[in-house]
Structures are given as C-alpha cells and as structure tokens.
Amino acid sequence: MPHLISIANQNSQFLCQEQRSLLSGLEGQKIKALQIGCRGGGCGVCKIRILDGNYQSKKMSIKHVSADELAAGVALSCRIFPLSDMTVETLD
C-alpha cells in the first residue's frame, strides 16, 4: 500500500510503497527535492528531518547521523521505509 509523503519545505508530495526507501520513492516520481548519492547510507547526502509519521529504519552510520541528530528526527532518506503517511523536510 502506498503512503503519501509530504516534503514540507519543498511544497511537494509523492507516493511511496512500504518496501521502498523514501529516497527510492522520490526518485521514482522524478522529484528533485534531495541530493542523490550512493543510495545505501554510505555518503550521507540525502539527510532529512522526519516531522510526522511512522516508519521502519535500517541502520545508519553515526558518521553521517549522530545520536543527537537521530533524537531530533534527522535520518537518511535512503534508510527510511514508510509505514504510514509521513511529513519530512529537506536539510540543506
């Protein structure tokens, strides 16, 4: 079942299946809201802040997302899989 993902500070939305990462879902929609790097958590360029919604997260390197950032809702979009509709914002 696809979930609606809203990018608050980009005023855009896209649908993302649960088995796809947010970054993968975004790429499929041809929306240019985020930088795209390695797609596997190794580069850290796809950072977002999660404002609302439920998700499953794969492991993220502390090199790219510190414990403090993680506690503040920062994550790598390539490592986040939606379980509900979500609202996120990009980090520049």
Task: Characterise this structure.
By secondary structure, this protein is mainly beta. The protein has one domain (2-90): Ubiquitin-like (UB roll) (Roll). The protein contains two helices and seven strands; from the N terminus they run E-E-H-E-E-H-E-E-E. It has helices at residues 22-28, 67-71, and strands at residues 2-7, 12-17, 47-52, 55-57, 74-76, 80-82, 86-90. The protein is globular. The chain starts with a strand and ends with a strand. The model has no long low-confidence stretch (mean pLDDT 90).
Brief synopsis:
The protein has two helices and seven strands, in the order ββαββαβββ. It is mainly β and 92 residues long.
